[in-house]
């Protein structure tokens, strides 16, 4: 059934860093595509007026992607501003006047997670959680299983599940968004997609920088909470889910949840944690911090298709390069060419910064026909300015009421169920030099047979 489009966008945290770097550029892009023609009401406590708010938005566009004069003129005409404390009733009374007769507003909480519950309850008490309104929540959605359940309980008292949109902007990235299309419309990947051919699966999310002045935030979060429990789990479920009976949002989300339900809860033996040298000297970081800046996990999916296929996830800061890549070694093939040293075939999917799909195969070395020469067949795609950014896509879908790219209540709680005991276990923390692939100990504990594939 076609959903009613939103007739107003309210975003809390309108003067914050996320709005400055991501939201305003996305709103301008939506205007250019004709996807935004409704009031955009910023809410924040900055002591600003509307002119100052518009100046902030204009500066954001000039520094993050470029200002389009025609689109900016249109966006500027849509902007409204409410200045006030999130706990002050007058803020919501002012918001009511700005909303006017809006019947289907979308409320976007681009604010610290500690304020989610307060704002949701205020919206509900002032009648803003009415039948057709929606709520969009930024990650992190909780810090463990219990906090996620508590937040879900607050949300569900005010909004039903169909009107709750939990953002993981990673799902809006074109290669992640298109992964299901790649899998289910091409015979080659899907024919190989099982334990019959796949030896193991490795997913790496590497960042070549540190905490970039966000030490106070990161020290309360760490790598597992920051990117593995959300971004990498989303990649994993897209990669492993069964083809849904139909491609409506709920059928797709059902199949994702089935994958998480089939992953046993992890324990301390399933993780290795690291911390880059110099992290303790970062501003905002506790002097005795045990927060990980690197983590490697080993897990399994207890479904017939994936039985016996070990899955390895790895993420970290201050690694050698910045990229996100999936590497899938295939099982060895029987061959009558016994005098050749045959390499395993593999599939490699790079998500960012550029998009690459590659297949590793064996060929005869033209310079020595008694030798094998492993090569890759590579297809590259470099994103251009015409493609939707991740935030543009998820905001467009939220305003249209399409929940496909958003996490459902059961998905969020299953993801936390998997990592929760492991997060609370007192696991060792190993140091690693910056711009290396994490602690040396990872190679003898959480590592595929044959070792990790390091992206280049």
Write a short abstract of this structure:
By secondary structure, the chain is an alpha/beta fold. It is built from 14 helices and 16 strands.
Question: Mind sketching the topology for me?
Answer:
Blueprint: E1 8-12, H1 17-33, E2 40-44, H2 50-63, H3 69-78, E3 79-83, H4 89-99, E4 105-109, H5 116-125, E5 134-137, H6 145-158, E6 164-167, H7 174-177, H8 179-185, H9 187-192, E7 201-206, H10 215-218, H11 222-240, H12 249-261, E8 271-276, E9 294-299, E10 311-316, E11 323-329, E12 346-352, E13 355-364, E14 372-381, H13 390-400, E15 406-407, H14 409-424, E16 429-432
Parallel strand pairs: 1-2, 1-4, 2-3, 4-5, 5-6, 7-10, 8-16
Antiparallel strand pairs: 6-15, 7-11, 8-9, 9-10, 11-12, 12-13, 13-14
Helix pairs in contact: 1-2, 1-3, 1-13, 5-6, 6-14, 11-12, 11-14, 12-14
Overview of the molecule:
The strands form two sheets. The chain has a nine-stranded mixed β-sheet, covered by helices on one side. The chain has helices at 17-33, 50-63, 69-78, 89-99, 116-125, 145-158, 174-177, 179-185, 187-192, 215-218, 222-240, 249-261, 390-400, 409-424; strands at residues 8-12, 40-44, 79-83, 105-109, 134-137, 164-167, 201-206, 271-276, 294-299, 311-316, 323-329, 346-352, 355-364, 372-381, 406-407, 429-432. It contains 14 helices and 16 strands. The model has no long low-confidence stretch (mean pLDDT 93).
């Amino acid at each position: 059934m076609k959903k009613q489009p939103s007739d107003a966008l309210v975003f809390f945290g309108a003067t914050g860093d996320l709005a400055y770097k991501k939201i305003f550029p996305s709103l301008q892009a939506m205007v250019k595509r004709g996807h935004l023609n409704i009031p955009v009401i910023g809410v924040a406590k900055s002591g600003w007026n509307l002119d100052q708010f518009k100046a902030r938005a204009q500066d954001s566009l000039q520094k993050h992607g470029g200002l389009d004069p025609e689109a900016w003129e249109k966006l500027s005409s849509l902007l409204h501003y409410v200045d006030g404390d999130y706990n002050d009733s007058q803020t919501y009374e002012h918001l009511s006047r700005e909303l006017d007769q809006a019947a289907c507003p979308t409320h976007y909480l681009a604010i610290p997670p500690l304020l989610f519950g307060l704002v949701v309850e205020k919206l509900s008490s002032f009648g803003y959680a009415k039948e057709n309104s929606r709520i969009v929540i930024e990650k992190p959605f909780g810090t463990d299983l219990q906090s996620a359940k508590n937040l879900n309980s607050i949300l569900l008292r005010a909004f039903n599940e169909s009107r709750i949109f939990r953002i993981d902007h990673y799902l809006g990235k074109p290669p992640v968004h298109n992964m299901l299309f790649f899998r289910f419309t091409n015979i080659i990947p899907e024919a190989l997609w099982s334990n019959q051919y796949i030896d193991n699966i490795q997913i790496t999310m590497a960042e070549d920088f540190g905490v970039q002045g966000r030490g106070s935030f990161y020290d309360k979060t760490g790598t597992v909470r920051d990117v593995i429990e959300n971004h990498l789990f989303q990649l994993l479920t897209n990669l492993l889910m069964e083809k849904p009976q139909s491609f409506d949002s709920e059928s797709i989300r059902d199949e994702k949840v089935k994958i998480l339900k089939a992953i046993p809860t992890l324990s301390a033996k399933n993780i290795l944690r690291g911390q880059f040298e110099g992290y303790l000297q970062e501003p905002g970081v506790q002097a005795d911090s045990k927060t990980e800046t690197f983590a490697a996990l080993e897990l399994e999916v207890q479904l017939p298709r994936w039985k016996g296929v070990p899955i390895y996830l790895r993420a970290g800061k201050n690694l050698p390069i910045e990229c996100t890549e999936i590497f899938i070694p295939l099982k060895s093939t029987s061959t009558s060419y016994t005098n050749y040293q045959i390499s395993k075939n593999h599939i490699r999917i790079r998500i960012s910064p550029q998009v690459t799909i590659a297949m590793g195969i064996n060929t005869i070395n033209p310079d020595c026909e008694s030798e094998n020469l492993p090569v890759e067949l590579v297809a590259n795609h470099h994103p251009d300015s015409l493609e939707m950014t991740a935030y543009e896509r998820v905001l467009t879908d939220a305003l249209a009421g399409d929940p496909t790219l958003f996490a459902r209540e059961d998905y969020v709680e299953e993801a936390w169920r998997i990592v929760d005991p492991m997060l609370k276990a007192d696991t060792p923390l190993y140091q690693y030099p910056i711009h290396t692939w994490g602690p040396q100990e990872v190679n003898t504990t959480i590592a595929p047979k044959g070792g990790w594939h390091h992206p280049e």
